[in-house]
Design goal:
With 196 residues, the chain is mainly alpha-helical. The chain contains 9 helices and no strands.
Amino acid sequence: IYKLTPCKSNQKDIQNAGIIDGNSLYDKYMNKFDFKSLAEPKVYLDWTHISTLSILGLREKFGRLAEELLNEGEKNKAAKVLDKISKMLPNERVTYNYEIFSIANSYFQAGQKSKGEEVLKKMQQVTVENLEYFKSLPKNQLDGVAYEIRINMYLLQEIIRMAGVYQLKNMEKEATEYWKSVENRFMIYMQAQRGE
C-alpha cells in the first residue's frame, strides 16, 4: 500500500524507500487483509501464483513492517507479524529465497532466537539442496543454471554472515565447511564464464 505524502524520505535504498506507518500497516496486515487462502494446503499455488508472490515481495513487506515495529519498540507486535507470514508462506508452500533473511533477522531482533535460527536453518537446507543439485550436473549443463548458482552462492554467504552475527556457531561452521567444499567447483566455473 503506497501513498504519496507531503514529506521527504531520507531513505537512499530503493528497497526501503518511503515511510511506514507501523500501527496502520499492522492493523491492515493483521486484521483487515485476508491472506487465508495462501496458507491453505488445499489451494494449489502454480508457477504464476508463486511468481506473483515473489514479484509482490510479500515476505519482504511483512519483514519491513516487523523492522519498523522493532524500531518503534514493539517487539511483541513484530513477533506476531513474523509469525503470521511464516505460517502463511512456509517453505513448503513457497520456497524460501533472499526475502527470508529479513524475517530471520527480525526474529532475532525481537528476541525470538529459536524462531530466527529455525528460519535460517531451513534456508540453509534449501540452499544446500540447490547447490547439491547443481553439483550433480555435468559441466556442459551448468550454463543453463549459472544465475541460480550465483544466487545460491550468495545465499550461502549470507547464511554464514548471519550465523556469525547471531553466534550460531554450529550453523556457521557447517555452512562454512560446505562453502569450502563447493567454492572451487562453482567459482572456477563462474570465472571461466566471465572470461577471467
